[in-house]
């Protein structure tokens, strides 16, 4: 018997009625919301009757809607293991072209990010960064690349950035122990969520620092620790985390920070260009061949 909810849905998708397909698609995209809806509320949300939702649960092999709801809630608590990711991805893609399927999925995640992100939280995050005495960017494992990318540009813009990407508790708190109310911490984590990230953000919040979360949904454990939450939809491609939408969000955050202090940043980069040129940091155009 197939246990994982998303795998059950994909295997049954072709046999569903139109109403059941609407339920299935909603759960695939927003199970973090559906998990806490009654059968009646879920039906109203997707435009079907309560009885259709109950029959949908039975069609998937559950004894009733409460068991389906529990399955969705379990997905939120622990998300997917690596083995489950492979299983679900194989079912989703099937015989379709892998390249096209993955790229289309990434396009969809960016579209959903545009629809769901809070512009107020985004603008508040930019203002907080511009005023911060020190900025701490925390991310581990697969998301550490996002911290490195974001930290690199914030360092060029502000010059007061600390990148923390260790899973060691001692190293984490050694890097964070000076954080104060004048500082900002950005915590980045996506499923499967990092316990260390949550604890580090809680520590920063206790020190009264401004805390910004970059994560995938309001059900994320990072949300409770944050003053501002920036939602970017992520997804899985087998064992790989798709971080296209989060990276796009980070690009927007960097651009907004530049525009917030464009004269200061312009002066900084003018000086940097002079240093880069003098030190030969970047290659010049290839010399004309044969001295032509």
From TrEMBL:
GO terms for molecular function: carbohydrate derivative binding; DNA binding; DNA-binding transcription factor activity. The keyword DNA-binding applies. Residues 125-264 form the SIS domain. GO terms for biological process: carbohydrate derivative metabolic process. Pfam families: HTH_6, SIS. Residues 3-79 form the HTH rpiR-type domain. SUPFAM superfamilies: Homeodomain-like, SIS domain. Keywords: DNA-binding, Transcription, Transcription regulation. Gene3D superfamilies: Glucose-6-phosphate isomerase like protein, domain 1, Winged helix-like DNA-binding domain superfamily/Winged helix DNA-binding domain. PANTHER family: GLUCOKINASE (PTHR30514), RPIR-FAMILY TRANSCRIPTIONAL REGULATOR (PTHR30514:SF18). This is MurR/RpiR family transcriptional regulator. It comes from Ruminococcus bovis.
């Amino acid at each position: 018997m197939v246990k994982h909810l998303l795998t059950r849905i994909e295997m049954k998708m072709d046999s569903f009625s139109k109403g059941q397909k609407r339920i299935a698609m909603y759960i695939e995209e927003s199970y973090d919301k559906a998990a806490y809806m009654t059968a009646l509320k879920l039906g109203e949300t997707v435009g079907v009757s309560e009885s259709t939702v109950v029959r949908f649960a039975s069609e998937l092999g559950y004894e009733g809607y409460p068991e389906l709801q529990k399955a969705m809630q379990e997905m939120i608590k622990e998300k997917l293991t690596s083995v489950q990711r492979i299983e679900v991805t194989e079912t989703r893609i099937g015989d379709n072209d892998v390249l096209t399927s993955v790229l289309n999925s990434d396009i969809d995640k960016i579209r959903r990010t545009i629809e769901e992100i809070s512009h107020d939280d985004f603008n508040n995050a930019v203002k907080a960064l511009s005023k911060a005495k020190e900025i701490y960017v925390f991310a581990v494992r697969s998301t550490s690349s996002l911290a490195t990318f974001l930290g690199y540009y914030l360092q060029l813009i502000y010059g007061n950035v600390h990148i923390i990407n260790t899973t060691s508790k001692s190293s984490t708190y050694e890097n964070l122990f000076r954080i104060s109310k004048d500082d900002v911490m950005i915590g980045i984590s996506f499923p499967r969520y990092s316990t260390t990230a949550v604890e580090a953000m809680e520590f920063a919040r206790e020190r009264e620092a401004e805390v910004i979360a970059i994560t995938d949904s309001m059900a994320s454990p990072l949300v409770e620790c944050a003053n501002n939450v920036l939602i970017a939809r992520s997804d899985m491609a087998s064992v790989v985390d798709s971080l296209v939408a989060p990276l796009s969000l980070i690009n927007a955050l960097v651009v907004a920070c530049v525009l917030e202090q464009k004269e200061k940043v312009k002066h900084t980069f003018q000086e940097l260009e002079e240093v880069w040129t003098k030190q030969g940091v970047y290659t010049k155009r290839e010399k004309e061949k044969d001295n032509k």
